[in-house]
Specification:
Length: 194
């Protein structure tokens, strides 16, 4: 294991080799499997499994009871809510070995996935997207999209601070907390820089 300047509760299991960034905390009964990469200042809650080959960026927050399966990558500042689920096989059968056929899922920077949501493999989550609690994601989610339901559908757009964006007739919105401006064009949202 690269570096030892992280915290792991005595009940956590960490399989070498893996990389764990400084300032990361790993809590009760979690299992970090070999050949995964975990960034700096991550918080991995109770009863979490991080499978081989998983890559987590910096400052990723993982709540209790989450399994991150092989094929998943998360950029910096991702939030994974309690008991949310990733899948990695589209057509699982107990009697059919599909190792090596795992579909990949990428979660973009700053995205949040709510409690008990399910992300069906092979569908990426865009930067700063917000997946509502209990949603079942069956297709790729655009950056800044707010999606809810089963199957998940876009009901609006959300700022980097997690506030619903209300666009004026010219396609501009302002985050009520940060004051940052956003532009909606061709069904895509971009943050404006000044």
């Amino acid at each position: 294991m690269a570096g030892e300047d992280y915290f792991a509760h005595e009940t956590a299991i960490i399989d070498a080799p893996c990389t764990i960034g400084s300032g990361t905390k790993i809590w009760h009964f979690s299992h970090i499997m070999s050949n995964c990469v975990i960034g700096e200042k991550c918080n991995i809650g109770q009863n979490v499994v991080v499978s081989p080959g998983v890559v987590l960026g910096n400052n990723v927050k993982i709540q209790n009871n989450v399994s991150i399966y092989e094929g998943v990558t998360c950029d910096d500042d991702v939030f994974l809510g309690p008991s949310m689920v990733f899948t990695n096989v589209t057509n699982p059968r107990s009697a059919v070995n599909r190792r090596g056929q795992y579909a990949k899922t990428h979660v973009g920077k700053g995205a949040s996935i709510g409690a008990n949501a399910t992300i069906v493999c092979g569908h990426d989550i865009g930067n700063y997207a917000f997946i509502g609690a209990g949603a079942v994601v069956t297709k790729t989610v655009a950056p800044y999209a707010l999606v809810v339901g089963n199957p998940a559908r876009k009901i609006g757009w959300i700022s980097e601070y997690g506030h619903r964006l209300e666009f004026d007739p010219e396609g501009t919105a302002v985050c009520p907390e940060s004051g940052e401006k956003y532009r909606l064009e061709n069904n895509q949202v971009k943050k404006l820089t000044e």
